[in-house]
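ugh ok fine here u go
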Amino acid sequence: MLRHTPLNALHRELGAKMVDFGGWDMPLHYGSQIGEHHTVRSGCGLFDVSHMLSLDLRGANVRPFLRRLVANNVDKLQVCGKALYSCMLNEAGGVIDDLILYFMDESWFRLVVNAGTADKDLAWMETCNADWGMGLTLTPRRDLAMIAIQGPDATRVLNEALPGVDSLTASLKPFNAAAMGEMFIARTGYTGEDGFEATVLAKSAPFFWKALMEAGGKPIGLGARDTLRLEAGMNLYGQDMDETTSPLESGLAWTVDLKTERDFVGRAALEKSEVTRQLAGLVLLDKGVLRSHQTVLTKHGAGEITSGTFSPTMQQSIALARIPLGIAPGEEVEVEIRDKKLRAKVVKYPFVRNGKVLI
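structure:
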């Protein structure tokens, strides 16, 4: 039985093509996936991301708990509402999940974790909480729904849909959030555009969605969400990293704090590991489409594409690939596609941010 978000019936009313996404019945597109992609780059798109889990951690030891749990330095969070992106690792240094942490006060942090890993994430945290004797309360907030409002017109759409919220959005900086009762608005996203992720009570979500549409927001499905995030050079858990790969070979070394003396799960393994691979961007020079699991041939050995697509913004095929160290941006490699070896160029990602092509 597929799980439904509070907006499921509304997606169907809007004519969405629904698909099974990690056990959730989710909209792939509402007509034109490419059209939806361009809407986010030029206007304002609405995404139902209620399948992701908001998890409230409360207790006197919440900061010490997170210091040990995640690889990034939680002590960077000192201002209410400030967010931090981090990986949560296993003892071998593999990525259990990537997540966002929000500091609300010294006894309350909110975490947002991926839908497909939510159950194992919660089980892992509960085990650590018990083993470390932290005494925290972990509350999965399935009574909430989350809507992403993304694009250069996102601020206007949100302000029009919620009269009076402009006093908040005007001062809300990127990677910061504010709570207003059960409403939680964060200036974050997964598209490479300005925007917000707004969390509301599940029963209010359909009314909020309709208000956003009346203000000019357009519904966007998972298909465009994937091309947008790949253009923006953002990792997807389960493709670009997982429990068998470390953040150091997944383009996420910047999220790992090895400078302070703070110990965290997986640190010892990372410090002992020999990193021989890197995550790099690829742009296809020949005709074709780059897809995950295609082999990349380089002068230092073989690699593999982790995520690939045709970029609607750039009008050419792009990818993220895990390739040997020593291959620098600008160098050419070959990709095996249907028994052919096609030329591709290694580039530094992101490919597109804020509507601008960076390659």
